[in-house]
Amino acid sequence: MRPLEFGWFLPTSGDTTCYGDPAAQVAPSLDLFDRVVTAAEAAGFEYLLVPVSTACWDAYIASAMMLGRSRSIRMLVAARPGYVNPVLLAKMITAFDQLSGGRVAVNLIAGQSDTETAAEGIRWTKEERYALMDEEVSILKALWTAKGGVNFEGRFHTLRGARIAPPPFQTPHPRFYLGGGSGQAWEISAKHADVHLFWGDTPERIGANMHEIRGLAAAHGRADDIGFGMRLQIVCRETEAEAWDAAHELVRDTTEHQARFIRNHYASSVANQRVQELARTHGELITPHLWTGITRVRPGAGIAIVGDPVQCADTLQQFVDLGCHSFCLSGYLHDAEAERFARMVRPILAERNAGRMAA
Predict the structure, then answer these.
(1) pTM
(2) Torsion over CA of 74, 332, 236 and 67, rounded to 10 degrees?
(3) Which pLDDT tens digit goes with each residue over 200-231?
(4) Distance (Å, whole) CA 11 – CA 9
(5) Which of 62, 188, 314, 343 has its CA 20 to 30 A from that of 135?
(6) CATH fold group of domain 5-352
(7) Count of H helices and E strands in the chain?
(8) What is the distance between the alpha carbons of residues 59 and 76, in angstroms, rounded to a whole number?
């Protein structure tokens, strides 16, 4: 069994205790990033997910700054098909890896919004972006492991004797993570990813999806190479009542206009379609402490665990028992919630899963 690992989120578009209330917003800044990275590192999180939506500060610049200002935490930075030439991208990630002593991992993202990708000059459809991603990850891996020049002839890229120096610090190369709900996303994970991150869903659905992706990975000879995890929000407080008060405060100013924008603007994402479906079919609660409320105001992984420390640990343990080992979490405010999780929830999980907690 793989050791458990926990990731946190770097809010490069800012932070809040109430979506929609300007007085509750915390603007992105070096001070905010420092507070979150310091809290996450002190709390023992193994990695930080750095987002890449239009509203976010640049992930690579932010990651480089934070790697230089931290000591142990890894940065999970995005590789988005079509945005950066894959040879240059391989050099960029290698530089991160070497200069940080192996504290970088790669997040494969095809893009949640066709509107945003088109606005940024990416002309490929979602299906084409996954095909492009497959090529670009294959090129990254070839460049990182080749003894000589790399030749590549593909649909999107042609290389003749490409090489990079130095090689990555990590052997054979940094780990790949991918979160996506489509069949194409699963196929890319099966072929390339070290960890497939699911968004919140019923334990039964997650178990079935894991079984299917393992089957796809087996076809690539990787049945034992792929691991699984969950990308979730968390709202933990000393009491359940306090947790629900904080959760409802996050969305108290939600308007129908906001909810409609989230539904429509990100409709091309199968994973976003699924979280919206969960909200429609289950209402606010998927399970007693798995809440859909944030999906109305936030795209992506808006399913949240809400409760007291034992209730939060119990909910996470359901996914541990299914075989998930990596948990990429976020909460509000991000520095305070990181501290609460480390103090109140992680010790419970450590006791229940002795021998599986990452060093």
Answers:
(1) 0.93
(2) 10
(3) 899 999 999 999 999 999 999 999 999 999 99
(4) 6
(5) 62
(6) TIM Barrel (3.20.20)
(7) 13, 15
(8) 9
